[in-house]
Each structure stands twice: as structure tokens, then as C-alpha cells.
Amino acid sequence: MLVCLASIFVTGLASNISRAAEAPIELKIVWSAPLPGIPRLCYDKVPAIIYTRYDLARKTTSIVKRELNGEERILGEFPGSPNERSLSCSQDGQTIAALDAQNSTLFLMRGAETALYRFSRFWAFSNVGRYSFLSPDGKSITLAETPSLISGANLLRDITIFPNGTSNVFFMNDYLYVDLQEGMQKYAAADGGWAERVAKFKRPTGFDASEIIRCGGHDVVSLVGSESSRYMVIADVPGSQDWLGQTGIRKLFRKHNTPVLISGGYGTCGFPLLDHKRWNATIGLASLDASGVQTYSLPYPEIRLINDDISFSKDGCFVLIQGFWLGQQGPDNTHLLAVQSQRCQ
User: What's the maximum distance between 2 C-alpha atoms anywhere in the chain?
Assistant: First the structure.
């Protein structure tokens, strides 16, 4: 199967940008909190956040759920401190996965059931993308080996394991991408596993895939090099048009600085609008979905983000970011923002 890569570069020609993107929508703070690790949007219907919290005295990590109104409750616990990048959640909010800091214990939760597993050997875990560990539908996971159940229900029995311990994996729903030294390969689900390779393609020399996310029905790849980032769309139709260019992203990247990556989930992707003279000063946000690009103004002039994870809710009416506002006093590093549009009232 042929794969067409519609690439976008900072030096590309400007495209027309939609009126919606030229008129930023205001964002309002719902709540701010000093949360550890990398919180994730994780819910079925009402937006909620999960994060890991370590109790040093008990030497135990809790998976905590924080609701839209700020209330919190503990979903589950596992021994040891957390591998903060491992925390993952399926798009229906029913399956949660996490590892301890030593990558020796796997915590799984599906619905109200929890399970703990133990690995027999060290695993150099690297969770580079939103769905590099657990698939969006929660039905697949990538592990270096099949671990042993030590407590709880055997939830792995109903989850397909993609065996991998060295390469970056990016799950979609019924297919995935693996970033290998010789290039990227696409696998489709087959016979209850991932044994069927359906396509392969090269990436630009000196760049690695740091994220592949579904935006408005397109697979958008974030490619990171030593000094710059590039983006491309993976399309199954040879000669397909540059969807990223059509949305007006080239113009945004000319007006601002190119972000490190495009992140997101639920079909909507997000990225920061960076001040053209200061690489780490975010002065706005942007979303990308099937309708194109929309920009947003911040409740304060700028924020210094502490990670590249910009997450919009399923309805696009809330966005989760981590960082510190210009002139901020206090430790609050996590902010849930509400989109101030008529659609979200």
C-alpha cells in the first residue's frame, strides 16, 4: 500500500487562514492547582482529570481523579513512586494504565476493577506520545513482556499486547505506527493481534517521530530534530493535498514560532502560539480539527508551559495545560480553562 506524506515546513508558503482563526476565542480559568506529574483528561461524559500522587510515608502512589468542580477522589493505588509519563487513559475513561518509577510494576484499571502486575526484568520505558502506551480504545497496550499478575482481576486477558521494548509506538484504534531506525511502519489489527504490516515510509533525515495524533480524520506526525520541528500528514491516497496547509497552519507558524509538537486527543489537536522572539513564551493557543484551525486568547498575557501536552475535551469546550502565568505568585502549575463561545454555553 502506498503512503503519501503531506509535509509542512516552517519555510512553506503562507496559506489563507479562516476567519475563525483570525478572531481568537477567550479562555477562562475554571480552576488551577499545584498537581504533580502530567495530569490527563480522563472521563466518559463530564470532563475530569486524573493524576498520580506519591505518599512518601506509605511509599505508595495514588491515581487521583479531579472533577470539573475541583473535587477529588482516589481511584486506585500501587506500591512505589510513579513513572509520571506512563499515566494513560482510554478515550472512554474506562481503562487506566500506569507504571512505577522502576518500571517493575504495572497498574491497570478497567471500570471499578484494578490489577497489579510484576515484570521479570528491567524495561527502559519511553512514553513519548499520548497513546504510545495504551491505545485510545483501551483494548491494546505495548509491553516489553507479558507480566505476572500479583493482585486483582486479570485485566490483561482482554487487552492485546504489542510486544516492544525499544521503539516508539503510536496507537490509533485499529492500527498503529512504530518508529524504527530505518523509518516508520504501519501495522493493522489481525487475528486478535498486530502481526500484519500494511505500509512503511521514510521520515526526513535527522528527525524522529515524537507524536502521531488523529486530528479531524487525519494522522498528524510531529517530527523533532536537534534544532527544529516539522509536521506531516500520513495519507493513504497518493497525491493528496496538504491538509495542514489548507487549514492555515503555515500562516500561524510564520506569525509565531513553530511549536515542538502538536498534541491532543478526541479528534482535536492543540498547540501553543509562541512569541516570535521568545521561544518559551506562549501568548495563545490553537486547536485543529475537521473544521480547521481556531485560535484562543489566554486569561493572562502569557504563560510559560512546562510540557507540550495541550488537551482539549471531547466537545472542545475545555482545555488542560500546565505552566506558570507571567508574574504568577504561588505553586499552581495545572490549569483547566473553559472556552468562552456560544457553542459552549
Answer: 59
Cell numbers describing residue 213? 495524533
**CA atoms of 304 and 339, how far apart (whole Å):** 20
Signed CA dihedral, 128, 129, 130, 135: sign only: negative
Question: Pairing mode, if any, of strands 95-99 and 105-110?
Answer: antiparallel
Q: What one-letter code names the amino acid at 27?
A: L
Q: Are 283 and 275 in contact (CB under 8 A)?
A: yes
Question: What gap in Å lies between CA 273 and CA 311, rounded to an integer?
Answer: 14
Query: What is the Cα–Cα distance from 339 to 296, expressed in whole angstroms?
Result: 8
What nine digits make up the cell of 273?
502560539
Taking phi first (over 0 means left), then psi (-120 to 50 degrees means alpha), and beta for anything else, what does residue 317 get?
Answer: alpha
Buried b (16+ CB within 10 A) or exposed e, 19-49: eebeebbebeebbbbebebbbbbbbeeebbb
Cβ–Cβ under 8 Å, residues 258 and 303: no
Contacts 24+ apart (CB under 8 A), 54-57: 54/81, 54/82
- Would the pTM count as exceeding 0.85? yes
DSSP lists the bridge partners of residue 200 as: 185
Distance from C-alpha of 172 to C-alpha of 142, rounded to nearest angstrom: 12
Q: pLDDT tens-digit profile of 232-262?
A: 888 755 545 577 778 888 788 888 888 888 9
C-alpha distances (whole Å) from 238 to each of 18, 314, 320 are: 26, 31, 36
Q: Which residues of 141-159 are buried (b: 16+ CB within 10 A; e: fewer)?
A: bbbbeebebeeeeebbeeb
CA distance 261 to 268: 14
Which tens digit of pLDDT belongs to each residue from 2-41? 344 544 433 333 333 444 456 899 999 999 999 999 999 9
Q: Strands across the sheet with 72-79, in order?
A: 40-41, 48-55, 60-67, 72-79
Question: For residue 93, with 0-12 CB atoms within 10 Å meaning exposed, 13-18 middle and 19 or more buried, which class applies?
Answer: buried
- Give dist(CA 249, CA 6) in Å, integer: 13
Residue in the structure block whose three cell numbers are 499486547: 161
- Residue 127 CB coordination number (10 Å): 21
Distance CA 90, CA 94 (A): 6
